[in-house]
Design a protein that fits this description.
five-stranded antiparallel β-sheet, 18 strands, 316 residues, nine-stranded antiparallel β-sheet, globular, alpha+beta
Length: 316
């Protein structure tokens, strides 16, 4: 079993604070920049699984940082350096308290709401006569309020965001514009690799000088859903399930083992063999999304490697 990193407690020079999310640890350096470490933790149904997944942190970090570089000409982002396969460094930002979810197809949460008879999602109308996984006439933005750890994100409309003062109207117009531009570019990148970008979420923050930038992950299998383009229409026409690339396979395994994050439920035990298959699946996701072979980093001592690389970066 490969070594994994599931927790970090570094003490870097000029470190002001440490925030631990479901998957990432974020170190504030001198109130100027953030060192974000992607761990190998696996989160599903807003619950962190007991064991780490080998190479998952490296995979998520490398997809996210590569996608930021591939979109920086259309939307500015927080990223300034990647000193380690699991680490991204960027500008200190104040995050907006909404996640900008955008959907090109009626899948996942949108499909479940539609099946329940709803035709409005986050204040946005969904056309009549659609089937699950059909393409929307135009992509729809369905924001969610960002949950504290352990709580579920909640749908919210543009009108409620503005009425509650969560985001100013001027800023929200920028968030919508950036979301559509990123989704368009992400759709083009996916198409070049034989994939369809179905839906995804973006998070934004504001730098100290008031600039709105993209933060956190982008176009990863944890934040996005992809379909294989080849055979998509035939599967829709015959009512078959779509072949997809996301961490949905983990959710389905948990559901089959009677776990959906509900009160009183116990997380099923993941054997080493199953964890190895999850790791292999994430590597497959990386190679499909990135269009390149995944190169495994040295994991003989991940903590030591990360600390050494971050210290070297901060010393420059």
């Amino acid at each position: 079993m490969s070594n994994t990193i599931t927790d970090t407690n570094f003490n870097f020079p000029n470190q002001k604070s440490l925030y631990k999310g479901k998957v990432r640890a974020v170190y504030n350096i001198n109130d100027e920049e953030l060192v974000m470490i992607a761990t190998d933790r696996l989160s599903a149904f807003d619950v962190v699984m007991p064991k780490g997944i080998p190479y998952k942190g490296q995979i998520l970090n490398q997809i996210a940082t590569s996608m930021m570089k591939a979109t920086e000409d259309v939307v500015p982002n927080w990223l300034t350096a990647t000193p380690d396969p699991n680490v991204a460094v960027g500008h200190l930002c104040e995050p907006f308290k909404v996640e900008m979810v955008i959907r090109g197809y009626m899948s996942g949460h949108a499909a479940r709401e539609y099946k329940a008879g709803k035709r409005m999602l986050c204040g946005v109308a969904m056309p009549e006569g659609m089937k699950e996984n059909d393409k929307f006439p135009n992509p729809i933005i369905t924001p969610a309020t960002k949950a504290e750890m352990g709580d579920h994100d909640e749908d919210i409309s543009r009108e409620d965001i503005l009425a509650k003062g969560i985001v100013t109207e001027a800023d929200y117009i920028v968030l919508e514009d950036y979301t559509r531009k990123l989704f368009q570019r992400g759709t083009e990148i996916a198409a070049s690799r034989g994939l369809i970008l179905v839906d995804t979420k973006y998070e934004f923050g504001k730098t100290k000088d008031g600039k709105i930038v993209l933060i956190d992950e982008i176009h990863t299998p944890d934040s996005s859903r992809y379909f294989y383009a080849d055979g998509y229409q035939e599967r829709q026409d015959t009512g078959e399930a779509q072949k997809q690339l996301s961490k949905e396979f983990v959710r389905q395994w948990l559901i089959a083992n009677n776990f959906q994050g509900l009160e009183g439920q116990t997380v099923p035990v993941m054997s080493d063999e199953y964890i190895e298959t999850v790791s292999e699946r994430y590597i497959e996701l990386y190679e499909k999304i990135m269009g390149e072979t995944f190169v495994k980093a040295d994991v003989s001592n991940i903590d030591e490697r990360i600390e050494k690389n971050v210290l070297a970066y901060l010393a420059n």
